[in-house]
C-alpha cells in the first residue's frame, strides 16, 4: 500500500524510480480507507536525506501510511532551506490538538551536549509528554532514543572513549517479541554516536525490556512494556553510503576520524560499502507498523 505525503516533496522522484508506491494528497483523500497517521519529528541536519530513508521504509508494508513532518520551533535548521521547511513541515503548535497512530523521533548529532543544554530541549520535553496521550507508539532513533530513555525512564547517557562508528553484530534476546519477529539470531546494524547508555540500568528498570544488544556497540533495541516507547540506539535506516559520507566529512574537516569498523570492504575507505542490513531494517519497520501501531491504535480516536 502507498505512503501519502505533501505534494512536491523532493524525495518523490527518487521513490518513484525505486518503485515505492506513493500517493498524492488528492488521490488519497478520494479513497475510503483509514490510513495510519505517522508523525515524524526530523531532528537530523540533512533533513531531505532522512526524509527519503524513512519514507522508503514506511512505504514497504501493506498499510496505507499518511506522513506528517514536524520541525522544532525553537531551533533554526542550517542545512535545509527555509522554503523546504515552510512547504513540507509543521510545528508542534499546529498539531498538538491532533492524535497520531505512530511517531518517529530521529537522532541528532548533539549527543555530546547535556540534554538541558540543547536549545530545543524544553520543546522536545513538551512533545514527549504529549505523546503519552496523543500517540499510540513512538519509535525513537539514536539521540532520540537516548532522549526518550532519559526523559521517560531517568536513564542517562555517558561519553564513549572513542566514537562508536561502523557495522556491528547484534544478538536477539527473545525472538518471540513482535518487534523483532523474523530476525536472525545474530544480525548486523550501523551505529554512529559518541555516547552510550547502560545495559545494567535498562535491565533493572521495571518498565523496560532490552531485546537486542551488541557486544561492541552495547544496548540496541529497547521496548517499554506498554509498547508506547521503542528505543533504537543505532541507525538501521542508514543508506549504504551514509557512514562513508560522515567519514569523508570528518576527514575533510581535518578531524582524523577512525575508519568505521566492519564497514568498508577489507576496511579500505577507497572501496564502495555495501548495505548488508537492509532486510532487517525493513522487517523492523514493518513489524512496528503492524504490531505496535496498526494492531493497537483505535479506528477512531476519541
From TrEMBL:
Q: Does the keyword ATP-binding apply?
A: no
Kindly tell me the pathway this chain contributes to: Amino-acid biosynthesis; L-methionine biosynthesis via de novo pathway; O-acetyl-L-homoserine from L-homoserine: step 1/1
- GO CC term, one of those recorded: cytoplasm
Q: What is its EC number?
A: 2.3.1.31
Record: residues binding substrate: 163, 192, 249
Q: Which residues does this entry assign to the site Important for substrate specificity? A: 192
What residues form the catalytic site here?
Answer: 142 (acyl-thioester intermediate), 235 (proton acceptor), 237
Q: What residues correspond to the site Important for acyl-CoA specificity?
A: 111
Question: Which superkingdom does the taxonomy of this entry point to?
Answer: Bacteria
Instruction: Indicate where this protein is primarily found.
Output: cytoplasm
Q: Where in the cell is it found?
A: Cytoplasm
**What's one GO MF term for it?**
homoserine O-succinyltransferase activity
Please, one GO biological process term? L-methionine biosynthetic process from homoserine via O-succinyl-L-homoserine and cystathionine
Function, as annotated, reads:
Transfers an acetyl group from acetyl-CoA to L-homoserine, forming acetyl-L-homoserine.
Which PANTHER family would you find in this protein's record?
Answer: HOMOSERINE O-SUCCINYLTRANSFERASE
Name of this protein: Homoserine O-acetyltransferase
Record the organism: Kurthia zopfii
Amino acid at each position: 500500500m502507498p505512503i501519502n505525503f505533501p505534494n512536491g516533496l523532493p524525495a518523490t522522484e527518487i521513490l518513484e524510480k525505486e518503485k515505492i508506491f506513493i500517493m498524492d494528497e488528492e488521490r488519497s483523500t478520494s479513497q475510503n480507507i483509514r490510513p495510519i497517521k505517522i508523525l515524524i519529528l526530523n531532528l537530523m541536519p540533512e533533513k531531505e536525506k532522512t526524509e527519503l530513508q524513512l519514507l522508503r521504509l514506511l512505504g514497504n508494508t501493506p498499510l496505507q501510511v499518511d506522513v506528517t513532518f514536524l520541525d522544532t520551533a525553537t531551533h533554526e535548521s542550517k542545512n535545509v532551506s527555509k522554503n523546504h521547511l515552510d512547504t513540507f513541515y509543521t510545528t508542534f503548535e499546529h498539531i498538538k490538538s491532533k492524535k497520531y497512530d505512530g511517531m518517529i523521533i530521529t537522532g541528532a548529532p548533539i549527543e555530546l551536549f547535556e540534554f538541558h543544554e540543547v536549545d530545543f530541549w524544553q520543546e522536545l520535553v513538551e512533545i514527549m509528554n504529549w505523546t503519552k496521550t496523543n500517540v499510540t507508539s513512538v519509535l525513537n532513533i539514536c539521540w532520540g532514543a537516548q532522549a526518550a530513555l532519559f526523559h521517560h525512564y531517568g536513564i542517562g547517557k555517558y561519553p564513549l572513549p572513542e566514537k562508536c562508528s561502523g557495522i556491528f553484530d547484534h544478538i536477539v534476546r527473545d525472538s518471540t517479541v513482535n518487534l523483532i519477529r523474523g530476525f536472525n539470531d545474530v544480525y548486523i546494524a550501523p551505529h554512529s554516536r559518541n555516547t552510550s547508555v547502560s545495559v545494567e540500568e535498562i535491565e533493572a528498570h521495571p518498565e523496560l525490556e532490552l531485546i537486542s544488544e551488541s557486544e561492541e556497540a552495547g544496548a540496541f533495541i529497547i521496548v517499554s512494556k506498554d509498547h508506547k516507547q521503542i528505543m533504537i540506539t543505532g541507525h538501521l535506516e542508514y543508506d549504504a553510503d551514509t557512514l562513508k559520507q560522515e567519514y569523508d566529512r570528518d576527514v575533510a574537516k581535518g578531524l582524523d576520524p577512525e575508519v568505521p569498523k566492519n564497514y568498508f570492504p577489507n576496511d579500505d575507505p577507497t572501496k564502495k560499502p555495501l548495505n548488508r542490513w537492509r532486510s532487517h531494517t525493513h522487517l523492523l519497520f514493518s513489524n512496528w507498523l503492524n504490531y505496535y501501531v496498526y494492531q493497537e491504535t483505535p479506528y477512531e480516536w476519541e
